[in-house]
Design a protein that fits this description.
2 copies of one chain form a homodimer. Chain A contains 14 helices and 20 strands. Chain A has about 450 residues and is an alpha/beta fold. Chain A folds into 2 domains: about 280 residues, Zn peptidases (Aminopeptidase), CATH 3.40.630; about 120 residues, Alpha-Beta Plaits (2-Layer Sandwich), CATH 3.30.70.360. In chain A, the strands form 6 sheets. In chain A, strands 1-2-6-3-7-18 form a 6-stranded mixed β-sheet, sandwiched between helices. In chain A, strand 4 and strand 5 form a beta hairpin. Chain A is globular. At the A-B interface, strand 10, strand 11, helix 7, helix 10 and strand 12 of A face strand 10, strand 11, helix 7, helix 10 and strand 12 of B. Strand 12 of chain A pairs antiparallel with strand 12 of chain B, so a sheet runs across the interface.
Chain lengths: ~450, ~450
């Protein structure tokens, strides 16, 4: 069987790439209303590709927001069913001026595809589509496969929860498989066993009712920039511990054993710093870099703006200043609760002279998966087969907001089999996905289905 | 003589206004290179107007930056000479979306001209041009008048110092008269006796060498927004006193007498707060609002930006964050010295994990003028004549960077006879200049010349 899959993939290598590039050319930015038509165009293309690749049926299904694409290949109702989740929407491409080539004009350079969405998540979910094609065309498929490819992951999946609730039967499966994360390296394959939760808010600070001359009024009227800065600065104490009361209350502390296991994962701090161009790492005192992104909740300012930001000088005391602030959450923290803490922190700490409004952008719960499930074992064996090395279980720093809802509604565990790398520039200019990883994913995924069918 | 001036002005009222509007229609924004041609167009129009209004000669003169317009009307070498300084450049109009009408499409509403530059300073320097016309056309001019109208005041007059040094003879005068400030109100006319100095810098904070995913890296790599906020927040202590070491070292404290005199100037805090839409005033503990803008040096953040500032959410840990920060200075502080303190404050306090670069935009020295000079007496008598009330001497909060250089190079005191109001929205959206103030200025200025000729 190995040979048939491999031969088929080799013969169709160029087309597998071309099809991914075509997806990448559609600017399906879910956060920006100007891309509404692109979102639908992308959904239609995904549907067509599911049909072309072997699905018995596929459709673009409406939600209150951007549509969901659903597809399925039912081999035999008695066989186990794998639900593949992915998303066809992408992050905004700004700041555009830092891209070396157009974010929606994919370029291949040194074995990497540069484009927004290449790794997150078009390139990754599409591996599953091409894996399906491989298994169908070689007549070697031992599971039923369902696809749930949504269009709102990057804005917190606000409508997917009710979609899933309304389509429980359709989505029923024995395991959920997601490729929307990364591994340590090709030499050190890993499987994520958790994702952090997310609370994302926007803050607006208002001083005077209009922009003022900083000479005439400077020093006598509160400056919203200064006071917003004060509020953001005060979020972390001198040990970079978050000061917001109650922030750590529900955190389940990692055990000594888990921390020891994490410490054994390969990590070269010098290489990490060199690759990022930083002199020092930064973070909460008492924790290692991997712990800071894996087992600790964090708060980051994702954006700030106010006053004059153009060329040259303008002596203005602005009326307003804004920030986007988000927290990453770890098991047992609740996104709703932390969002409320964040909003309260800003609104109730409004310094004298300004008013503060804070509002939720979106959130998502943290999620952990056990390493003794059938799905995890199948994934580990698949990786072992194609990488020749047992994968290390690690906790990922990112968030997939829908995980906890998927598990709750469908009663099924999630397996994270990500083939990206941390340096793929997700959410950043020059996002890329290595061709080697793309093809390795397509090669590995059929083994997951094979082993999962045996385990089940 | 009063009647002749008044009659002439009445007859030409509409034209005086139309000519001002024509000036306002040229977007002469000195800070933005895209307006280079507009700057020259504006200079040429000013020159033509000086000639049309009675100057014997006028020319557009080159500098290393935007040109200067010079004009003169020499009546008799034995008579005293008044040098009028003003500027034809304006502040950037951003944020454009807050303007009720186009910043360069002047609109008259309820007796006010709304346009960028209406009060600062096109509408104000042009009062002097129309005052010249009044005196020339009625044959009643007792002084020589020179005009120095520059194009770089809003960017700190970087080239005017050397221009003045190279043209000392041409600019020689017995007094320098400037209308580029405001009075308390039409009921409480005032004369500025000082302007604050300025130090304006831009700060760039860099963390990682590229934007990062805030999940993958958040909490483990320094966030330049957070650390910039910390540095800005730390500029003021809990009493809103500036903490930068050495900042207050050279400040000449106002005497008890001067503070008592200031306290007598009419000021209604409730009205001030209502007009600005704020619940509380803000500022350095131990000083009144007028003292905070008049006799105290201050530091303001004029702009801040970094990370994602668009619609919706983007979970990015940015590579860079920026701020524009300026200080207003009071007598005896040196702009060079304070600029260096500000730059050092940011560069030498760079927290671990980020690098900080700060650079000077521009600066200007504080300036004070005595109230017992011939010029001040002439201005006070002119105001008394047309307003029917003796003006109060006050210290203005704004800056005119060139003042100290003009005095030093030309050996002549400066008189500030501003006809604007604090609520003219200088440097802000919807800048306006009241028609009443414009005409009152044109009415008052000839008396200054008349009284100055008598005093001299």
């Amino acid at each position: 069987m190995h040979t048939a899959w491999k031969d088929y993939q080799k013969q169709n290598e160029q087309r597998f790439l071309d099809e991914m590039l075509e997806l990448l050319r559609i600017p399906s930015v879910s956060a920006k209303s100007e891309h509404k038509d692109d979102m639908r165009k992308c959904a239609e293309l995904v549907k067509q590709r599911l049909l072309d690749s072997g699905c018995d049926k596929a459709e673009v299904m409406e939600t209150a927001g951007h549509p969901v694409v659903y597809g399925e290949k039912i081999v035999d109702a008695s066989k186990p069913t794998v639900l593949v989740y992915g998303h066809y929407d992408v992050q905004p491409a700004d700041p555009l001026e830092l891209w070396h080539s157009g974010p929606f004009e994919p370029v291949i350079k040194e074995g990497k595809v540069y484009a927004r969405g290449s790794a997150d998540d078009k390139g990754q979910f599409y591996m599953h589509v091409k894996a399906l094609e491989t298994m169908v065309k070689t007549g070697d498929l031992d599971t039923n496969i369902k696809f749930l490819i949504e269009g709102e992951e990057e804005v917190g999946s606000p409508n997917l929860g009710s979609f899933v609730r309304e389509h429980k039967d359709m989505l029923k499966a024995d395991v959920i498989l997601i490729s929307d994360s990364s591994m340590i390296s090709m030499e050190n394959p890993s499987l994520d066993i958790g994702v952090r939760g997310l609370s994302y808010i926007q803050v607006e600070v208002t001083g005077a009712n209009r922009d003022l001359h900083s000479g005439t009024y400077g020093g006598a009227v509160a400056n919203p920039i200064t006071l917003l800065c004060k509020m953001i600065a005060d979020i972390h104490d001198e040990n970079n511990h978050v000061t917001i009361p109650g922030f750590y209350d529900d955190v389940v502390e990692a055990t000594k054993e888990e921390r020891e296991l994490m410490a054994r994962a390969p990590f070269d701090e010098k290489e990490y710093k060199d690759e990022l161009g930083i002199k020092e790492v930064w973070g909460e005192k008492g924790f290692t870099t991997n712990e800071r992104t894996g087992i600790r909740p964090t708060v980051e300012a994702n954006g700030i703006w106010g006053g004059y930001t153009g060329e040259g000088a303008k002596t203005v005391l602005p009326s307003k200043a804004y920030a986007k602030v988000s927290a990453r959450l770890v098991p047992n923290q609740s996104s709703d609760k932390i969002s409320k803490l964040l909003i309260d922190y800003f609104e109730q700490n409004a310094p004298e002279g300004v008013t503060v409004k804070a509002e939720l952008h979106h959130g998502g719960e943290p999620y952990m998966t056990p390493i003794d499930s059938k799905g995890y074992r199948a994934a580990a064996k698949a990786i072992q087969t194609t990488f020749g090395k047992e994968p290390v279980p690690v906790r990922g720093g990112g968030s997939i907001p829908i995980c906890s809802i998927l598990e709750k509604e469908l009663g099924t565990k999630i397996i994270f089999m990500g083939f990206g790398l941390d340096n793929d520039n997700l959410h950043s200019p020059n996002e890329k996905y290595n061709l080697e990883n793309y093809y390795k994913g397509i090669e590995t995924i059929p083994y997951f289905h094979k082993f999962f069918a045996v385990e089940s």
